[in-house]
Design a protein that fits this description.
heterodimer; A: mainly alpha; ABC transporter involved in vitamin B12 uptake, BtuC; two-stranded antiparallel ribbon; 2 strands; 75% helix; globular; B: 337 residues; mainly alpha; 65% helix
Chain lengths: 296, 337
């Protein structure tokens, strides 16, 4: 039993790393802009395809990571500038924005399908060696993923705690009106929030497909299940909560995969989501209760 | 009219009927009650599986030549599987609503529903014993086919009649709900939740009623569809399918039953059938992908230019108090006035 559970915890840490990057990006952008972006998973897939193109051209995986993150960042900013913000300015409220984001999600997903076709893809990279630590077996690629996630989380922590931008972001997340009155250029803060969250999203897309053997146009959309679970468990808009939640859900889902069967991975994330909704929905009260509307 | 054309037109009419029924169900939830149910398609799927299993009869084990496995097979006579599908759709809505409809912000609610849809597909695909996993159910006997002796084309038109009959019943139901005080209260909850709650309306309970009724109607639409095409698999109810219905409701006119009917005619039928007549090009799946892109763009265009749809919801006016006639006191001061 233990012999299967310890390696499962190892896998759990890898999954948690990917989830942490994706979940923090998702929740950070949501906290600042108050737009729930259901296209997030599909931007991850698009970044994965960018990385696929880079590695297929014979360039290194590191370059692919950078390209994926840059793509996610630029794409998210443009998406907000040219689609989401105009809709908000035109008076589309939360109710309509959610339809806008899912429409964008379908458009991205099917554009990828139209361009690349319905195949399985995998990144071209050197076969990684395996390393055994404390009964857990990692490939060097997986160790890289863990390292990248830790670095990204540390960077987000430093950004939010110790920079003016981080402070401005937290202020905008708490009360955009008040932040604007205090002389914070909320427009710029929101742009930067999309840029940072987009970079995390792109990075998460690439490390997700480094970890799995193959991916398709729906890989990112499917990954939305644990991302949403992480965001809700961590408290929507709470980056630190998301980091912790990623660890919990990552390890719990891999343990379930080892004990029952791999199909139960997402089910665990789902059960946690439902449990939070039933037991502790305070963090996610209705818009009337919280009095928040979309910011743009 | 040649037989081929009759066949095609009758088939499209049945699809139209199914889409109209489903859109009315979604409109009750989305247009009238303001619930963004991105899991709508799973209620249709639940109804379809229920009707299929209750028509197929007990599952034959693989050892005896059975090729599909499922739970709870039975041979129920014709209208019963469809009614059972409605019941199952409603019960599933009650279950999902018990954690999904909790006075959440509408966008969180939508996100939770989307996750419900994704997880339902993954569970049904992986639990092969439940309803035959990814291959789905096939060879569902056609209703009444063994009783009435009709030519294939005659049977097609019989089915069109059955679908039309169900459409009338469902329209009657949604019309009663939307024009009753219940419908008015639901719209009040949609437009101003706080005000409705302040007037003592049970907001969550009311939304739950709309959610369950929508689930029942979705289940019935699935049942009609599966009895007609006699096969059903997870491929037919992926979450983007829900989005087609959302687009139809938005294009037709949120909250307006007639508008929604037009939307169901325009989006799933005219729009998606039209591509049948353009020559195939590109690799396999290319046209499908383009179709989805166009549906997404269509939704965005309508939300931008005509967010109220082609036939907007009727603005309900109530006669203002006449000149000099102040708001009447609840209890007259003098009985003889």
């Amino acid at each position: 039993m233990v012999s299967t559970l310890v390696p499962a915890i190892g896998f759990g840490i890898v999954t948690a790393s990917i989830l942490a990057v994706a979940g923090v990006g998702f929740t950070l952008q949501f906290g600042v802009t108050n737009i729930l972006n259901l296209a997030y998973g599909d931007i991850m897939t698009a970044a994965a395809f960018v990385a696929y193109l880079v590695t297929s051209a014979g360039l290194s995986v590191w370059l692919a990571l950078a390209a994926g993150a840059a793509f996610g960042s630029v794409f998210s900013v443009l998406l907000n500038r040219f689609v989401y913000t105009p809709f908000v300015r035109r008076g589309t409220r939360l109710f309509g924005m959610i339809i806008v984001t899912i429409a964008v999600s379908l458009i991205i997903q099917n554009s990828l399908l139209a361009i690349f076709g319905a195949n399985f893809f995998s990144l071209q990279m050197p076969r990684p060696a395996s390393v055994t630590t404390a009964g857990m077996v990692f490939t060097t690629a997986q160790l890289g993923i863990i390292g990248i996630a830790i670095a990204a989380m540390l960077a987000i922590h430093l950004l939010l705690r110790y920079t003016k931008l981080g402070k401005a972001m937290r202020a905008t997340a708490t009360d955009p009106e008040l932040a604007r009155s205090c002389g914070i250029a909320t427009d710029r803060v929101i742009d930067l929030a999309w840029a940072i969250s987009g970079a995390l999203c792109g990075l998460a897309g690439v490390i997700l497909v480094i970890n799995v053997t193959s991916f398709t146009d729906t890989t990112g959309a499917q990954f939305l299940i644990p991302i949403v679970a992480v965001a809700v468990l961590g408290g929507i808009g709470q980056p630190y909560g998301a980091m912790l939640a990623a660890l919990v859900i990552g390890i719990a889902s891999e343990l379930a995969a080892a004990i029952f069967s791999p199909e139960y991975k997402d089910v665990v994330a789902f059960v946690i989501l439902v449990a939070v909704l039933i037991a502790r929905p305070q963090g996610i009260l209705s818009e009337v209760a919280t009095g928040k509307e979309v910011a743009a | 009219m040649s037989v081929a054309w009759q066949f095609y037109i009758s088939t499209v009419l049945v699809y139209l009927g199914v889409d109209v029924i489903a859109c009315w169900g979604l409109n009750l939830q989305f247009g009238v009650a303001g619930l963004i149910n991105f899991a709508f398609i799973i209620f249709q799927a639940a109804g379809a599986y229920t009707a299929a299993v209750l028509t197929l009869g007990p599952a034959i084990p693989a050892a005896k030549g059975g090729f599909q496995q499922y739970v709870g097979g039975a041979h129920w006579p014709f209208p019963l599987p469809i009614l059972a599908a409605g019941v199952v759709g409603g019960l599933l809505a009650l279950l999902v609503g018990s954690f999904g409809i909790r006075r959440l912000r509408s966008d969180y609610e939508a996100m939770v529903m989307l996750v419900v849809s994704l997880i339902a597909t993954s569970v049904v695909t992986n639990q092969v014993g439940l309803v035959n996993g990814p291959n789905g159910l096939a060879l569902v006997p056609k209703p009444l086919a063994s009783i009435v002796s009709l030519s294939p084309i005659g049977y097609q038109w019989l089915f069109v009649g059955i679908t039309a009959g169900v459409c009338v019943c469902v329209y009657w139901l949604v019309h009663i709900v939307t024009s009753s005080p219940l419908g008015r209260t639901l719209r009040a909850v949609r437009d101003n939740e706080q005000a409705a709650a302040a007037l003592g309306k049970n907001v969550t309970g009311l939304r739950m009623i709309a959610f369950v009724l929508g689930g029942v109607i979705a289940g019935i639409s699935g049942a009609i569809l599966v009895e007609f095409i006699s096969a059903w698999s997870p491929g037919s109810w992926l979450y983007p399918e829900t989005f087609v219905y959302f687009t139809a409701v938005i294009v037709g006119g949120l909250g307006n039953n007639l508008g929604v009917m037009v939307g169901a005619l325009l989006v799933p039928v005219v729009f998606l059938e039209a591509t049948r007549f353009i020559p195939q090009f590109g690799p396999p799946g290319f046209i499908d992908a383009l179709q989805w892109i166009v549906v997404g763009v269509l939704a965005l265009v309508f939300l931008w230019f005509w967010p109220r749809g082609v036939i907007p919801e009727r603005r309900r006016r109530f006669p203002p108090a006449a000149e000099g006639e102040e708001a009447q006191p609840l209890m007259p001061a003098k009985a003889g006035r």
